[in-house]
Amino acid sequence: MKAKTIFSCQNCGYQSSKWLGRCPDCNMWNSFIEENYLDTSIKTRERVSLYKEEPVLLRDVKLEEKTRLTTNIEELDRVLGGGLVCGSVILLGGEPGIGKSTISLQLSNSLTHAGYTVFYVSGEESVSQTRIRANRLLKDRIRDNFYIVSQTDLSLILEYIKKITPHVVIIDSIQVIFDPSVGSSAGTISQIRECAGILAHLAKSTNTVLIIIGHVTKEGIIAGPKVLEHIVDTVLYFEGDRFSTLRILRAVKNRFGSTNEIGVFEMTSEGLQEVKSPSEIFLSERPQEIPGSVISAVLEGSRPLLIEIQALVSRGGFGYARRRTQGFDYNRLGLLVAVLEKRLGISLENEDVFVNVVGGIKVEDPALDLAVVLAIISAFKEKVVLKDSVIFGEIGLGGEVRSINQAMLRIKEAERLGFKNIFLPKNNLKNLNYKNKIKLIGVGNLKEILPLVFI
After folding, report:
1. Top-confidence range, 214-228, 240-254, 400-414
2. Between 20 and 30 A from 63 (CA), which of 48, 99, 266, 322?
3. What does the domain layout of the chain look like in residue ranges?
4. What distance in Å separates the CA atoms of residue 283 and residue 148, rounded to the nearest whole number?
5. Under 8 Å CB-to-CB from 301, ≥6 apart: which residues?
6. At 31, is the secondary structure helix, strand, or coil?
7. CATH for 41-49+68-276?
8. Whose CA is closest to 30, among 165, 176, 219, 160?
9. Band of pLDDT at residue 47, cut at 50, 70 and 90
C-alpha cells in the first residue's frame, strides 16, 4: 500500500491535500492536522468479510420476540425508548468526570445480573484500576459473565469479541482505540472514523449492542461529531455541572425512540442513583419571597418537570447591556427583552440581564417564556411573585400569551408538590375540565397578568 500525506479536519473529517486555516465544510478554524494516510480499503474489506451477510428478501426476515435488552435502570430505559435494541450502536458523550464510565459499569453490572454477557474494553485504565472503581460502585455483586480488557488495538479487540461473543460491548473510549493499518495516531478523525465504522459493522452483523464512549472538545461537543453521529443509531449526552450532584441524560439522536425524553440521576459515593421525582430536587433549595425567582412547569418528553427560573437585572457599567443565560436559549432571551421594552414600556437598554435555569438542565420548551419574562420584571422592579405559584405559557411578539401543549400534565405535577396557584394561557384554560383545590388563572397577554402575579 502506498502511503501519502493528507490534512484532515478534526471536527468534521474533511480532507485536503494541503493545510487550510479554515475548513470549507464546517467552517472551523485551525482544525487541520497532517496525517500519514494509508489506503486501507483492501484490509477493511478482508476484515469485515468475516462478518458479512448475504442479501435476503425483507418479507423473509423473521421478527424476534425480544428485540430489546431491558437495563433495569428505569431512567436509562426511558431515554433509550424501552431498553437497548439488539444490533444498535450507541454513542455516550459528556464532559470529563460527569459519569460516563460510572453509568457504563452500572449498566454492565445490571445486564450481567439479567443473564447477558458484557465485554468492557477499557482503553484509558488498567484492569486493576477499573476493578478498584467497580469494587466501590458494585461491591461484591460482580457476575461471572462480565469480561473486561485493557486494550487499544482494534485488531485484538475484534478477536476478543469474536471469541467471547458477548451480548453487549462497551468501548471506553473511542478516542484511544487505534487501527494499526491506519497511519495516523489515535484520536485523529481518520482513526475515529475507521475504528467506529468497523465496530458498528460488527455490531450490525452479529446483533450485538455496541456502546461507544466519546470525549468532548473544548467547545463542549463530542470530538468528531459529524462522523460519529452518522455512524451510530443513538447519541446520548450527559448534561449538568460535574461539580454538582445532578446529572441529566438526554438523547440527542435516537432511531428507536423519542429524543424528547430525559433521565435524571444524582451522583453519590455509590455511583449514579436514579431520581424518581426530579421536580422535588430542582425546587429543594429555592429561596422564598426573593425578587427574580419564578417556578415554571416544562415538559421533557412525557415527563412534566417543575423548575426554578432565576433572573438578575442590574445597571450596566461597560457602555452596553449584557445578556447572559444558563440553560435557556440566548437568542430567545433577546426576543423576550425586546417584547418587554416594546409592549410594556420597560426600559432595559442600559440594564444587564442574567437568566438561570436552576439545576443545570437545558430547556427548549416555549412554555418557559412567561416565567422568564416575569422573573425579569420581578428582578427589575424588586417585586416578589405571588407565593406558591406556577407560571407557564408561550409569549408572542405582540405580548400575547399563547397556548401550550399538555397543560393537564403540568397542572397535576404542580398539584402533587403542593402549589396553590397556576397562571396559564386562557386558551388552555377554556379546554380544561378540572376541578380541585388548586386555583387556575387564565391570562391572555402580559398586561393582564402583571396586577395578578405580583404582591
Report:
1. 400-414
2. 48
3. 1-39, 41-49+68-276, 281-453
4. 40
5. 78, 258, 260, 261, 262
6. coil
7. 3.40.50.300
8. 219
9. low
Instruction: Identify whether 173 is preceded by a cis peptide bond (ω within 30 of 0).
Output: yes
Pairing of strands 246-254, 234-239: antiparallel
Q: Give me 447's grid cell.
A: 398586561
Q: Which residues of 320-352 are buried (b: 16+ CB within 10 A; e: fewer)?
A: eeebebebbbeebbeebbebbeebeebebeebb
Overall size of the chain counted in residues: 455
Question: What pLDDT, on the 0 to 100 scale, is given for residue 373?
Answer: 97
Cα–Cα distance measured from residue 305 to residue 252, given in angstroms and rounded to the nearest whole number: 19
* Residues 28, 433: Cα–Cα separation, whole Å: 53
End-to-end Cα separation, the chain, in angstroms: 78
pLDDT, tens only, 5-19: 788 887 777 888 889
Question: Which residues lie closer than 8 Å to 212 by C-beta, 6 or more apart?
Answer: 89, 90, 91, 92, 171, 173, 174, 196, 199, 228, 232
Amino acid at 61: V
Residue ranges with strand state E in 184-254: 209-214, 234-239, 246-254
Apex 29 CA angle, 28 and 34, nearest 5: 100
Give me the CATH topology for the region 281-453. Ribosomal Protein S5; domain 2 (3.30.230)
pLDDT in tens, 380-425: 999 999 999 999 999 999 999 999 999 999 999 999 999 999 999 9
pLDDT at residue number 223:
56
DSSP conformation class of 191: H
Rounded Cα distance between 8 and 227, Å, is 12
Q: HEC string of 313-373?
A: EEECCCCCCCEEEECCCHHHHHHHHHHHHHHCCCCCCCEEEEEEECCCCCCCCHHHHHHHH
pLDDT tens-place string over residues 249-290: 989 899 988 888 889 999 888 889 999 888 988 898 888 889
The amino acid that residue 65 corresponds to is: E
